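Please go through this protein, sequence plus structure tokens, and consider how the sequence yields the tokens. Keep your notes short.
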Amino acid sequence: MTNNIDKRLVNNIPASLRFKFLTLLFLAVICCNVLQPVTADSSTPVSSSLYKLSDKGVCWEYEAWRDKSTGDVNWPGVETDASLMQGAGINWARVSLRYTDDLSQVDRLVSIARRHSIKLDLLIGKAPPERDYGDPAQEAIDSSWLTKVVKRYKSYVKLWEIGNEPNITQSWDRQQPENSDTLDSSIRQYISYLAESYTIVKRVDPRATVLMAGFSEWKAESWLDSFRRQQGGQYTDGFAIHPYAADADSVAARLKTIIAKANEDPLLAGKPVWITEVGFEVEKSWQTPGFVGNEANKASNLSKVMQLLRAAGIKTPIFWYTLHELGPETHGYGLTIIDSGADGHETTQPAYDAYRAFNAAEPGTVTGGR
């Protein structure tokens, strides 16, 4: 540190004060570095080895195996999940990490994922208030927590997704009445959170990939317009989207429209497109845009949508939503169904077989036994 300092200056300082001087100088250098803003343009380039074209993903709600009364996790069930993923050639999992999570349980989950060669997209949940940026004291708590977890998992986790679907009220505060001013205000709050999170992750692990929250296709255009005006794209290494629709062809058509809108933003154009959720479900009462009636239709739409997304130029891992639902005996979007009982058993569905077959047919995919 003293190489660029005139040695005569240091030597002229009394010996009793020299240590204090050098200590204060060191702290000044550290503070200058901490205060320097980090953006996608100034960060270290993302490692090109993060993923291959043959990589496949799934959303993994491992908390389905957590006992609601005790908080204990049925680890044999989690092991079953990981074995089923590996058996289908799935080598990425999108996992939620919440402020309230027991990190000793997350440690074990990461260990299981590593053992089964499953890379993780950690979907970061915010410290309270979960749906708003919060005041400076609240944000300091969130920043401290995020710094801790990135340091804890950076040796294995290289993909961090900051929040989920901030363009819908359930995930982020959409102020009312909804108009252009309140929309801009909501997005400004999210960008502040994204910028802070991006900066933290990059300082702890400069080669990590940080993604904006995957956002819903619902009203995507107005959200992207505001995101562009407020230059949020400088705080993400990719563009994440959840293009749900009635069938595979509609998903591809909707995605094409959204990507065209995103490419109007010079800070997003050319960045990798990540599909961090896509899927179809069979629960008629849910009234979602992805309802397809039965398991056979779910399977056929899965096969087709994966082909269409690759044909559309998606080179990143595509995350099917979901491996299984949170509740037992629930079909929903799941590739499997958790059976009733505490033995960690689950039953694969036709969509699981369709995903396995698609993965086996794509060059470079490694599948294992079920």
Q: What stands out?
A: The mean pLDDT is 87. The chain is about 40% helix and 10% strand. The two ends are 56 Å apart (CA to CA).
